[in-house]
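Work Package 4 report. The design task specified in the project plan requires that, given a folded chain encoded as structure tokens, an amino acid be chosen for each position. We show below one input record used in the internal validation round.
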């Protein structure tokens, strides 16, 4: 097992609280997107109850080469290889009726014996839920495997995901982020997005659990068609709102520091730092200050620093101080929005205020800390955030 997995830089397990939320679709699009970005990717479908990756990628007739020592993955492109239980079943319509230990053994074999070679990313489509099978997948992959959890906006789905977040933490792995799928429906006539199931459940859960919200993918008839007909959505639809939403989700995954490069690995310390930035281009960032330093309580801020930075080159372009209006929950988000700010970096901020910012499409990073007791100024806060070295812990304000 180690022999195979040691050659993989990033292991990403795509999980969901239950079936049918689009886990396989998200796993496939992440794998394809990373491969189109030039990365060497392996997509492993260990969803023993419903292996759907062969259909999603039009590989249903693929033949797998197996010898005594290893299983050859099926190439989908130069950069993307695929392995699925679906390739090994004599009949794709046959349900898999195996007892637990047989399933575990099979999952173990797929994880250990597939000859991927060197990979930048292994994307694993995991069985849904929080039972024995996802548990085995995480344990066999090891503590450095990170989870992407897929949900839909409805309350019940969000509750399932809350369980998944706890489950991943209990097993000892970290959650890379939450994706809200089927978030609104794209009208096939005008392209307008209608929120039929409500919206924002995934983002609220991400805030509540301190997990990164990777983004939301609308319910798009083109995604259904691409899945049914087995063509690659991301390759055909490059400019649609859905393709752009998937590209946004890919960004932080592409920015994961290389664990085999010691300089980058130092930055990658999973605990104790703010998550890697998802922002690109020129961004205005607001930092709440008291006595000129990052304050731990947003509600006590005396001044706001508005720092403009180029997130591509990681340069600070300018910084100005503004005096905010008297604090009332709904006033600050509107004020900050008028300043053109897209990101707030705070020590602590109450849940309600975070939601109000998010409703204005302003991202909030909470739990930022001044690590050395002397405090750090706003440009330094933004600089460190861009470099991935901003100390961060729990939200220091939970009321
Ligand atoms: P899971 O792996 O969670 O069981 P799938 O990825 O197989 O779910 O998706 C279930 C169905 O929903 C498939 O028919 C798929 O094409 C469809 N689907 C998934 N995501 C979307 C989306 N964003 N828009 C439209 N249809 C989607």
């Amino acid at each position: 097992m180690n022999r195979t997995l040691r050659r993989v830089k990033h292991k990403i397990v795509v999980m969901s609280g239950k079936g049918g939320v689009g886990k396989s679709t998200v796993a496939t699009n992440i794998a394809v997107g990373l491969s189109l970005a030039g990365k060497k990717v392996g997509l492993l479908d260990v969803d023993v109850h419903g292996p759907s990756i062969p259909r999603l990628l039009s590989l249903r007739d693929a033949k797998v080469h197996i010898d005594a020592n290893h299983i050859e993955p099926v190439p989908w492109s130069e950069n993307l290889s695929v392995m699925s239980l679906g390739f090994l079943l004599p009949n794709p319509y046959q349900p898999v009726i195996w007892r637990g230990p047989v399933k575990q053994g099979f999952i173990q074999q797929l994880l250990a014996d597939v000859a991927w070679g060197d990979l930048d990313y292994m994307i694993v489509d995991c069985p849904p839920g929080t039972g024995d099978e996802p548990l085995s997948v995480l344990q066999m992959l090891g503590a450095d495997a990170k989870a992407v959890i897929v949900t839909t906006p409805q309350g019940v789905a969000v509750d399932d995901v809350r369980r998944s977040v706890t489950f991943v933490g209990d097993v000892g792995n970290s959650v890379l982020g939450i994706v809200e799928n089927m978030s609104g429906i794209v009208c096939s006539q005008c392209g307008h997005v209608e929120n039929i199931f409500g919206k924002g459940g995934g983002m609220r859960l991400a805030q509540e659990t301190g997990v990164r919200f990777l983004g939301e993918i609308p319910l798009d008839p083109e995604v259904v068609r691409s899945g049914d007909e087995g063509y690659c959505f991301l390759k055909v639809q490059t400019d649609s709102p859905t393709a752009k939403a998937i590209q946004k989700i890919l960004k932080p995954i592409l920015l994961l520091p290389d664990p085999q490069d010691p300089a980058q690995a130092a930055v990658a310390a999973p605990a104790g730092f703010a998550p890697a930035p998802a922002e690109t281009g020129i961004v205005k960032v607001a930092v709440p200050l008291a006595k000129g330093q990052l304050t731990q309580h947003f509600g006590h801020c005396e001044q706001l620093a508005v720092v403009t930075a180029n997130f591509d080159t990681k340069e600070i372009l300018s910084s100005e101080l503004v005096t905010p209006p008297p604090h009332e929950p709904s006033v600050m988000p509107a004020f900050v929005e008028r300043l053109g700010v897209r990101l707030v970096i705070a020590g602590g901020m109450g849940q309600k205020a975070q939601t109000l910012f998010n409703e204005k499409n302003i991202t909030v990073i909470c739990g930022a800390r001044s690590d050395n007791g002397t405090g750090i100024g706003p440009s330094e806060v933004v600089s460190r955030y861009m470099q991935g070295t901003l100390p961060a812990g729990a939200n220091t304000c939970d009321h």
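The domain at 282-387 is CATH 3.30.420.130 (Nucleotidyltransferase; domain 5). Validation will be extended to a larger panel in the next phase.
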